[in-house]
Specification:
20 strands; about 35% helix; about 30% strand; alpha+beta; 6-stranded mixed sheet; 8-stranded mixed sheet; single chain; about 375 residues; FAD/NAD(P)-binding domain
Length: about 375
């Protein structure tokens, strides 16, 4: 049972599809609307830490994720010349029966989650935008851009960093750049790449890569944030290859495979955190709509999935949607998200400032926090 009978989820990313899956499993009639015309996911690859895998197992998709992705439980640290400086056993934040991390192609994860939602009976509507919310004590009336309307016991806004739902609620929260930009590229995986390796130093703040399946990886190079919008695809490829030229070891093989301009994605690191309750009445925000952190600790997707799991758990145990439920949700999520966001930003700031901060200590503390079940 659940405190609600009907729910609208706005946004078809990881947070939204996870919330839809878990609510429909409780017998809730769930509708999910997504502004994109089909299942999409920007970027090339994603690193799913153990605490994300714990939720994916709860969603019933772990075996699919395992089959499509590449699991590993150590991280390498390399010098720019390719020398392996250290091999670190990564924290298994999802528990001892799950790997420390899985690298995966982002569109594959999106398809797996959406497929699971569809299989369980979530009503999926693509190319649909929520244009207005009108709520009272008992529910939320919603108008969509195609002229249709609906009424729901709960609306979940999981529509990303520039959430339209957040703006409709009148919440003043916008992402701020942290000063870094990241080049991501999807490429064939050399057989020598079996885990994430990171290099701090050289012309990039971070040069790293993550295997995403049997034959693929995503590589990334982090620089000072620059306006790269005017570059043509071929020029972007040239910039990436030039940066990658300064790194050796597995990068030599990776660089030789960087030939497709369409595989390159460039974004700035951004951050925000809604410091306070994530709901207004019967509308609640989760995922990037309320917390965004640079990917320096690879915890963005994990936080989003945890939001969905905790929300569904509390709704399933409650008799009504009231302040007691929302207080419990805030208590379970806000400080945990703050620890991850602050840690992710701090690690990047040390790199920007050229400071030798306690990176291992920071990473261990965040791993300790997220290693506890959400």
């Amino acid at each position: 049972m659940s405190a609600i009978n009907t729910a609208l989820v706005i946004g078809g990313g990881a947070a939204g599809t996870a919330a839809a899956i878990l609510l429909v499993e409780q017998g809730v009639d769930v509708e999910l609307v997504e502004i994109a015309p089909d299942v999409v996911a920007l970027g090339s690859g994603i690193t799913l830490q153990g605490n994300a895998l714990r939720v994916l197992r709860r969603l019933g998709v772990w075996e699919s994720v395992r089959r499509l992705g590449h699991e590993f439980s150590t991280v390498g640290l390399r010098a720019p010349d390719g020398t392996l400086l250290a091999e670190i056993t990564d924290a298994r934040t999802g528990g001892p029966d799950l790997p420390a991390a899985v690298g995966m192609y982002r569109p594959d994860l999106a398809r797996v989650l959406t497929g699971r939602a569809d299989e369980l009976g979530v009503r999926l509507r693509f190319a649909t935008r929520c244009s207005a919310l009108d709520q009272d004590a008992d529910g939320v009336g919603v108008r969509f851009d195609d002229g249709s309307t609906g009424r729901y016991d709960l609306v979940v806004g999981a529509d990303g960093v520039r959430s339209a739902t957040r703006r409709m609620l009148g919440i003043d929260l916008e992402p701020e750049p942290t000063g870094m930009g990241i080049w991501r590229v999807f490429a064939p995986r050399p057989v020598s790449v079996t885990r994430t390796d990171l290099c701090y130093g050289g012309p990039a703040h971070i040069a790293g890569y993550c295997p995403t399946g049997p034959d693929a990886l995503y590589a990334y190079l982090v620089e000072d944030a620059q306006d790269r919008t005017g570059l043509a695809p071929g020029e972007k490829l040239a910039v990436v290859r030039d940066l990658a030229w300064h790194y050796r070891g597995p990068w030599d093989e990776i660089r030789s495979n960087l030939t497709d301009p369409a595989s390159i994605n460039y974004t700035w690191f951004e951050t925000h955190l809604l410091d306070g309750p994530w709901h207004r009445g019967r509308v609640v925000l989760i995922g990037d709509a309320v917390h965004v952190c640079p990917p320096t600790l690879a915890q963005g997707a994990a936080l989003a999935l945890e939001d969905a799991a905790v929300l569904a758990e509390l709704l399933g145990a409650a008799e009504r949607v009231d302040e007691e439920l929302w207080s419990a949700f805030t208590a379970r999520r806000l400080e945990r998200a703050r620890a991850v966001v602050n840690g992710s930003v701090q690690l990047g700031q040390w790199l920007l400032d050229g400071e030798e901060g306690d990176v291992p200590g920071l990473m261990a503390e965040v791993a300790r926090v997220v290693g506890e079940p959400a």
